[in-house]
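Reviewer comment 2.1 asked that we show a complete input and output for one of the modelled complexes. We chose the adenosine monophosphate case, as it is the one discussed in the main text.
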Amino acid sequence: MLALRSTADLLTWRTSLAAGTTIAFVPTMGYLHDGHLSLLREARARAGAGKVVLSIFVNPTQFGPNEDLDRYPRDEAGDFAKAQASGTDVVFCPTTPEELYPSRSTWVTVDDLDQHLCGRSRPGHFRGVCTVVCKLLMLVRPDVSLFGQKDFQQLAILRHMHADLFLPGEIVGMPIVREPDGLALSSRNANLSAAARQQALAISSFLAQVRERFSAGVRDVATLLGDTASALAPGKIDYVEVVDALRLAPVNLIERPALCAVAAFFGGVRLIDNTLLTP
Ligand code: AMP
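Response of the prediction step:
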């Protein structure tokens, strides 16, 4: 596995590839877990005899001033071992943010879809995500890029950006990977105390209850959600919403594919999770 630490090295490597070499790309912020590895394994399968590229970059521009940039977990040696075992050919891990941000004056924004869910509670977050993913797609020029549906809004926004800017390759969404007890895998889980981790199971239990009610025929969102404060206690709710799966705007009645999305703090750690509800 080759480690590239500058954009110059990445571009040199990319240019040296024979025309027609398939590239499958997985962008991450590192501290790899089985969710990331599921993306890498799918990338390996899709790349065939070509190359799997992983990027590891804790992107500062997608963190707000009071968010957890400094506390974001990192483990480069562990990540390299996992990436190699999952069939990664190249890991791009820029040494400084300046590698990807020669200046901080060019930005990519996707209107509308960022007005909802995480976009409302994290102003500027998706601008940071879109900008860095756009840069990475231009550098790597992959045939396929893989993203997790755990970050459902991110995936929806990136699909729009990708189509509107004619960015290279195909975008593929991958299912949420969970712990056996239901907790959605996240690098941020490493920041949970044992007690907070236990309490955080309330999120996946709540989503399971919502799915059960939905399967039983409930379509009215208020009935579907029930008493969210007690369902997620002692978590501090950022939002619990049912939104249209395409437009991400809230709905009161489910008539088309919808998403039930949760963001809540447990022990000061912000966790997100979701489930699709398809009538
Ligand atoms: P991150 O490192 O958190 O920015 O995530 C990198 C990629 O992995 C994103 O496309 C995420 O949606 C995806 N991802 C994170 N957690 C999971 C999970 N539990 N299951 C599937 N994909 C995930």
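Residues 125-140 form the longest helix (16 residues). We note this here for comparison with the apo prediction described in Section 3.2.
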